[in-house]
Design brief:
Structural class: mainly beta
Number of strands: 19
Order of helices and strands: EEEEEEEEEEEEEEEEEEE
Number of domains: 2
Shape: elongated
Number of helices: 0
CATH architecture of the largest domain: Sandwich
CATH topology of the largest domain: Jelly Rolls
Helix content: under 10%
Strand order of the largest sheet: 1-2-9-4-7
CATH class of the largest domain: Mainly Beta
Length: 405
Amino acid sequence: MFEGEVGRNSLGNIAIDDISMAPGVCPTAPQVAATGPGDCAFEDDECGWSNPERVEGVDELNWQRSAAQDGGRFPLADHTTGTDLGFFIQLSRDNIQKAGDRAFFVSRELNGTVLPKCLSFWFYMYEPIVDNTGPNLGKLAVWTRTIDKHDNLVMTPVWRLHNGQGPTWSYAQTEITTQTNHQVIIEGVWGNNRASGFISVDDVTIYEGVCATIPAPAEIVTGECTFDRDSCGWTNSSNGESFDWRMATLTKRPANLPDKTYGAPVGYAYFDIFNTGSRSDQVRMISPVIKTTSQEDNLCFSFSYAAFGAGESTLLKIFRKEVSKGSDEIEALGDNDFPIWELNAADLETARPDWEPAQVSIDSRKDIRLYIVGKASNGGFAIDQITLSKGTCRIRPEEAVPKKN
């Protein structure tokens, strides 16, 4: 049903033509006809989406509303109109200072609801040239931002995809479930400071409904982390008083080690006990609860590690601990808890640390937490690129098989 309403006089006309219907979702156009915030085709403006002010200090770059005819090499057309005259938003390449530089694009405040919402959009992630270090375009992510009862900002990841996906527009969607007022944030991250690729977004739509994550690799997996924005639910627990697992910063990071993900100066977790004398203590980084899956009895837990400092007393261990159904309590490791992966840095090159691959199979038939435990008196380990995939895998490196007591 179309409804037309007569105004105060009869001097004007209202007409419609060329009605069509097609599968899928689309943003309301023109934007002034939208009944709620969030929808945007970027043909007229940014529809209330905005870059944070520089004084907020949450990012380094901006998203720019662009058209293919503006001179960018890719994409050759926007998604809405399919021509070089149509508009989209693109991650800026201006003023890139370092690998891992990023930009937020923030929606207006959206009302919370008990009904789930689905966010859909089209993305373009293309890296024309891949050098011998492998794909390094960067990341496109979606977050929700809310304020908790203590007036703290809470960022929750809902969609995340890395590196190039080909020279074409691709469809994406993810479910948003929050009962409090919130904002949606589209984040773009450059993987290197040469920024040889292109990251763009078009036709953003938010509507009520349940939806699966598309594409599947963009789904947020509990426990996975690249540490480039936060610790992804991993929590710090230490016995010592003066040190713990920490996030690398520009001013505090071991041996000028760059992160594994982008080669950025920050973006990984590490523990560092150079100043504790002969004292030897432990640090623990504990995962969120990893739920059991009915499809698989095992998961492959993989990560990258780097050892630094004096290696004789530098150890890294992985523990698996079952948790009660529905319990969020973090339990301490007991005398009967034995590591499933263990590495001593005594035989590793620690003077000039570099990233090495590691993995181990874990039994996932029960809800579990994983404990990454470090111990040293003069040295430490760094951790990056934690992933969890279905199935079993052989332990890496081979010398990480735990020693039997």
